Description:
Number of helices of chain A: 9
CATH superfamily of chain A: Tetracycline Repressor, domain 2
Largest interface: A-B, 40 and 41 residues
Oligomer: homodimer
Shape of chain A: elongated
Amino acid sequence: MIEPGTRRRxxxxxxxxxxxxxxxxxxxxxxxxxxxxxQGASLYAHVASKEDVxxxxxxxxxxxxxxxxxxxxxxxxxxxxxxxxxxxxxAHVEVITADPERSSVFxxxxxxxxxxxxxxxxxxxxxxxxxxxxTIADGVAVGAFRATDxxxxxxxxxxxxxxxxxxxxxxxxxxxxxxxxHYVDLALRSLSEDHR
Amino acid sequence: MIEPGTRRRxxxxxxxxxxxxxxxxxxxxxxxxxxxxxQGASLYAHVASKEDVxxxxxxxxxxxxxxxxxxxxxxxxxxxxxxxxxxxxxAHVEVITADPERSSVFxxxxxxxxxxxxxxxxxxxxxxxxxxxxTIADGVAVGAFRATDxxxxxxxxxxxxxxxxxxxxxxxxxxxxxxxxHYVDLALRSLSEDHR
Lengths: 196, 196
């Protein structure tokens, strides 16, 4: 017998794949049940609605990004914004490549959440983006970065990172580690003092 | 009386807004007709299917990016890859900010096209991305850029640029021109020779 927690995780995994491949709106509860080889009615024993499944996926993804950023910030040299930003970028890439489907759903499908949940995620996304923004602003303040608009620079870097969720393949040309290394380098250089 | 071409453009504009706001899969032909204040049957006098509308939007967006890149390449100094990349980035940002809804549909909804049309767009997207990739590789060859992986660097820059379609507001904090200036600067610096 499968324990309830395991089934709940399976639902999120299968739903992430379907939402990623076809979009939330085009996926029905019946599609999710069929992919799990169970009846739609059985699925409702585990989840109240399709939106509940989306919420679970998005909430878990947000938590994964937050925890990874917490750990990265703890490990990085607090006095060095360059080291801090490198750690944040690396952590972000690791969360995405560890579960690209879930990350893709987090990035593109969260707008389909109910208004209250969407507002809650918007606040968490903004707080998360603020870590990047403030680290960049700290780097500008100490002369390590040049960025006339730290908020826009944070958006530039984060959207480039989030793009990985749309194209990354575990069996692709580049390993997750290589992508992380390259993206840390590109992100740090995009803020560097010298131009050409 | 509205000439047919005008009505056809109105359909694309209204459909771009709806596909952008709610996604292609969640939008029906009836939704498009309602937004235009016409009957669904009348809409079918202009378009054969919802997918036809998506194709028209995506095809026009692809053409806009291609023409802008052609013009940028013609105007830029052909012997200077830095100038060339700056022109490509600026042109890309201009196309997005001129019509963020259409650009967003191009970036995120093209996967809902029928297989033949999707393949055709995939080829055009790849040829377009190749302009960025080759300009970066040219810059590396002449020592103007440092990029160990020009293909990945092109993806980094293009996904950051495409992100603009998801957050840009014409009445927002930054004008389209300011965003273009900042993004040209961030993109060029991400490839610059010097680090810190």
